[in-house]
Amino acid sequence: MEVAATVEEMRALRRRFEGSVGLVPTLGFLHEGHLSLVRAARQRDDRVVVSCFVNPTQFGPGEDYERYPHDPERDLSLLRPEGVDAVFLPAKEEIYRDGDATFVEVAGMDDLLEGAHRPGHLRGVATVVAKLLHIVQPHRAYFGQKDAQQLVVVRRMVRDLHLDVEIVARPTVREPDGLAMSSRNVYLSPQEREAALVLSKALRQAEQRFAGGERDGERLRTAMRELIGQEPLAQLDYVSVADVETLQELELVEGAALASLAVRIGRTRLIDNVILQS
Ligand code: PAF
């Protein structure tokens, strides 16, 4: 496994790779969710590149950029047994240079879900993913379904900019008790870790109601809101039952819907979602 710290080093490695290349972009501090993306890439692509980069532009003021968990040695030791070919571990200055004036923004997303609650977040994600796709030039890039709006934004950017890459979405990986894996779970105290189960419980309840025939978007949202409201440590940012592509809230679920939520447990903001589909 080779490690590239600069854009030039990454490009030099890439030029040597024959066959198809899969990229798994991450913020680092890897968990089983990331490793499941790596394994999916390993199955489909001849070469696998993982990027670990805590991207400053996707964190808003007052968010956790400064304290985001960071342990490159740990990441490398998790990636080595997975048959990864290259890890791209750039410093901030490699990706964002003085005088950078170009950003990528997918219009129409800023007043929805994460876009509405984290100003600038999606622009930061689209910009860094565009940069990584240009640097690594993969045939496929792998993303987790947990960041559902990020996936919508990345797919839209790839389509609109005619980028020659296939975006592959993989299911959310969960702890045995249902909590969606996230690097931010390390922030949770034992009591908060317990309280955090309210996210997956609310989504499971939405799935059950949907399976029982409920198709009214507002009733599904209200039931999730009420369940979150019963957890004293939880503070709700949003619940949503939305169209899977436009992310507009649905009055009536006719085909599939994305049920998603963002909840603060103490100082930790967690997101999760499920697809409701008959
Ligand atoms: O999902 C993430 O880990 C990040 O948002 C990504 C896609 C690596 C961009 O920084």
Secondary structure topology:
Elements: E1 2-4, H1 7-16, E2 21-26, H2 32-44, E3 47-52, H3 72-79, E4 86-88, H4 92-95, H5 113-117, H6 121-136, E5 140-144, H7 148-160, E6 166-170, H8 190-195, H9 197-211, H10 217-229, E7 234-242, E8 257-265, E9 268-276
Parallel strand pairs: 1-4, 2-3, 2-5, 3-4, 5-6
Antiparallel strand pairs: 7-8, 8-9
**CATH homologous superfamily assignment of the largest domain:** HUPs
Order of helices and strands: EHEHEHEHHHEHEHHHEEE
Number of domains: 2
Overall pLDDT: 98
CATH architecture of the largest domain: 3-Layer(aba) Sandwich
Low-confidence parts = none
> What's the gyration radius in Å?
19 Å
CATH topology of the largest domain: Rossmann fold
Please work out how many helical segments DSSP would assign.
10
In order across it, which strands form the biggest sheet?
1-4-3-2-5-6
Q: What can you tell me about this protein's structure?
A:
The termini are far apart. Strand 2, helix 2 and strand 3 form a beta-alpha-beta unit. With 278 residues, the chain is of the alpha/beta class. The mean pLDDT is 98. Helices cover 37% and strands 20% of the residues. The strands form 2 sheets. Strands 1-4-3-2-5-6 form a 6-stranded parallel beta sheet, sandwiched between helices. Strands 7-8-9 form a 3-stranded antiparallel beta sheet. It has 2 domains: 2-170, HUPs (Rossmann fold); 187-276, Pantoate--beta-alanine Ligase, Chain: A,domain 2. The chain contains 10 helices and 9 strands. It has helices spanning 7-16, 32-44, 72-79, 92-95, 113-117, 121-136, 148-160, 190-195, 197-211, 217-229; strands at 2-4, 21-26, 47-52, 86-88, 140-144, 166-170, 234-242, 257-265, 268-276. Residues 25-27, 55, 58, 125, 128-129, 147, 150 line the site of pantoate.
